[in-house]
Predict the 3D structure of the following.
Amino acid sequence: MAPADIQQQTYAVIYCLLQNERDFDMIEHDGPEDENVFDPVTIASKLRELGDDYDEKVIQPLIKNVQKAAANQVVTAFADSVDSLCKTWVVERAEVASEKQLLKAAVTLGLVMKKNCPDMTKVIEVAMAGFVNNRLTNWIAEQGGWVSVSKKSTY
């Protein structure tokens, strides 16, 4: 799958991921229930589960840094926070690929930030999509695209 296609899919997945749970359930799925078809709602749901597994207390100091940042600094603060979070995970779970750690950290941090800063949802969406597209597009392509990444349950 071409990186440009993955980047477009990333925006769709992040958009679905950051919808309110009430609205999230109302978004139509893009295709039949074929698990090999790209469906941003299903992928976002799996990523939401991934993010929900992480304890919010670990990332609270990181959220405070992002909240203090001006809107034009959020992308940098977001990326720095994800990197910091991943350094902690490397020590705890060295057996997990660093790209998976980046994805998990980005999803977790984005969801918690949205919950704590709902007025910044659009900025967070742009920061998350930019981060994933800049740092993980090649890895997502190597895995076979978002559909393949979402099927892998070991994060």
User: Anything to note?
Assistant: The CA atoms of residues 34 and 49 lie 20 Å apart. The chain has a mean pLDDT of 76. The chain has eight helices and no strands. The longest helix spans residues 121-143.
